[in-house]
Amino acid sequence: MNQKKEKSNIVLIGMPASGKSTIGVVLAKITGKDFADTDITIQHVEGRPLQQIIDEDGNDYFKKVEEEILAGFDAENCVIATGGSAAYYDRAMENLKKNGIVVYLKVSLSGIRSRLNNLETRGVTLKPGQTIADLYEERIPFYEKHCDLAVEAEGRDIWETAEIIAEKIRVFTI
Q1: Which residues, including other chains, have CB under 8 Å from residue 163's CB and lie 6 or more apart?
Q2: What is the mean pLDDT of residues 61-69?
Q3: Is the pTM value of this prediction over 0.85?
């Protein structure tokens, strides 16, 4: 008997400050799913905040840890907010897609700039000399490549965005 398994997770990807964590909590409430934030999982595994990991061990170490955690992440019936760099890792995204619908939260560069007021402490992996604009341009193709669905998350409140996502993912579960 070869039954197709319905995907029970909703995986949120997008730039830092696109609303993955805040929208994710509301989306979990709307859909009756659990909520997981992979940045918090990384902090728990490492025993320290993201920025401290980056400051002490560098971007390469952080990315290695993040990829390993995402590639092994296993959840059922969960809204998963990923870190902004999650879409870099094909192996990790393949794992998350096995049981998840990947939703890209789209926000313009100016929108990200206006929301991102704690760049030095947030745990964003910037290369030396790299700007948010550079990072934005680098990451957009990865988000577009891995998403099943893109949702405009700018100019709407958190609840409205979460409700739009909940409505749109129903087509994946019917």
Answers
A1: 30
A2: 94
A3: yes
